[in-house]
């Protein structure tokens, strides 16, 4: 206390110099922070790197670097031909941008798979494809002679009226009629529909998987830049727009992958937290104005102190940890919400003395003596709550703990340096009606007397609520899915979640590196026998099985397939000729509709569309354009099918050495190890499926790594860190309070409202389905430190300067507790509305806990003090 008195006296004697030095320090912190500011939002980077699963993860990244820092482009189209064509065009366009992309990979694409793709079908599917092609051979042969709309109608007229020349199965013919009806309708309604010849000729089964195509890009990233992923991502979107792959023709391009997820997450965090910090500051000023009853000088002094402390804490954060993370970025809102408490306590006690007629310098000194010890204790206990995460393996929370814990001491120093210096130069005057200013309103009086008139009921009610909340503790859960932390509306997140619906495209797969070819095959077979595993893929799986048999089937297909001319394209015959061919086809179709019960519905539907289309074309200023559009919808995919089919019939035997280099580089390491990529059978966004999958894989391959392992193990580390930090905080704070208060009773009184608030928060987490996650798990240790602050202020004031009537709710201490907590609730409440779900969940739990805390502090603690407290005169 003597040191504090000397310090305050020094601040008063050198007030102008103190403020000048504070301004210089603040300006220096602004310059340093802006020059060195960095953020990382990768959840994996928030886990200590020396853990075994992190070492396995880094080994995989070093061994197969093309799997790291990737962008995944997902191309979807209603037709497989459109999807493949879009993939090829976009990949070709992006390969030209070598300054942005160091690798462009098309899974299943390229000359190798175009030539040998049929070998990767199982024997049954290949034979089914051959049968479809054999049935369609006469139709294709005639179309090759006249690849035009005129030729198409002529061939169909032949197929319908003289079926012995072009024998098409009724099922194929009916499907063709239905697709043609859709094409006619598409022209008239301007819908982007086209007939898929691949589906028609080779069957739906062979084509359905090709409607979704992928490009995997490895961009050149400037890791020193905050917006490292911006330029590559923008280049992809711009290319898609230039190539008209923007949905206007039914083709959509979406982006996901770790680079896209990190960048969009970073942008969400930056925008959200920056805006939340500013809004928190505005709310702090507003609530200050209410709490300090419009005293402009006190509001100005408090905000100046708060802002200076915040900026200095930012400078310390950048200097101490280098870059902020998903959790530590919230320190600004936490600082504003918590740091304002120091100014409230100081200013309200100071104002109370000024209104009582105490001279300004004496009021500052008395205030410092009166609240100095309780604020120092509050700083220490809050810092303990933050620092409790430092010894844990959760680096993300550890960094927040270091920053915010130190920030509490910076705030304490600022409030006993800058604030008294400002008040010395800008003293507050005593109000004209000071004696009536604090008189409570009737409702306030009832609230103030509640814990004193109904002491037993308040305590019993608290016990009942606490017991009910404790009963829900076993249902408290942890959400392991990092995607649930991000903005759910962002493109990268929605795309990733869509991919989870198909196990074959699940973004999370396990990986195992194995030495030896035979050992790799054996381990893959053992993994595939697991119920939780869908498939285990190695480089050896890209050497097709039963090649002799399949090559025989392909050779037979080549015998009956007509030769495809180089550069085949759809021709455009005369308008009159096309109308004549269409009329002949209509006549044959009418005959068929009356003679074939099975094909009659499809034939009649097509006739109706043709009649409507002819009327549409006749009433269109350029009727020929309608037929050109029809030709595009009916025949545009035919040349692509014929060309690709012609190349695929040139397949030859494939060995391991024939596989493309870009595929091998993703499956075989430089030191000769082989990768097994393990696909799950279930949806790993379900935590139970994730746990079962990882446990099953690790029983067979303990060295497995990859996203499922990393996510689950990271979650376990976070949960363990949460428990560890909570225990550290509770033990340290309890021991500290026992030493400081020298009383078990006082310690229990301070902890009681906190325990009740934490139990109620846990119950709210269960009731409102806000589980713990990677971001909000810091709530309990944090609030163990924050939560005792109210109790310390109350008990310290009660033991040193108790009110004459014993009612603590009439003091400036209770008013400071109320308004500082309201400010804290408002600051944290802003986080609850942010689009970033992880930070929003942190805001929700912090808001609830602080709301519960102020209620228990203002109701339960006064009741307990009345029952067990022993005040003494100062």
Count of individual helical segments: 34
Shape: elongated
* Computed structural class: mainly alpha
Distance between the termini: 15 Å
Mean pLDDT: 86
Widest beta sheet: strand line-up = 3-4-2-5
Q: What about the largest sheet?
A: 4 strands, antiparallel
Q: Roughly what fraction of the amino acids lie in strands?
A: 5-15%
Total beta strands? 10
Uncertain regions: pLDDT < 50 for 5+ in a row? 433-438
Residue share in helix: 55-70%
The radius of gyration over CA amounts to 37 Å
Can you describe this structure?
The protein has 874 residues and is mainly alpha-helical. Helices cover 65% and strands 6% of the residues. The protein has 34 helices and 10 strands. The strands form 3 sheets. It has a 4-stranded antiparallel beta sheet. The protein is elongated. It starts with a helix and ends in a 6-residue tail after the last helix.
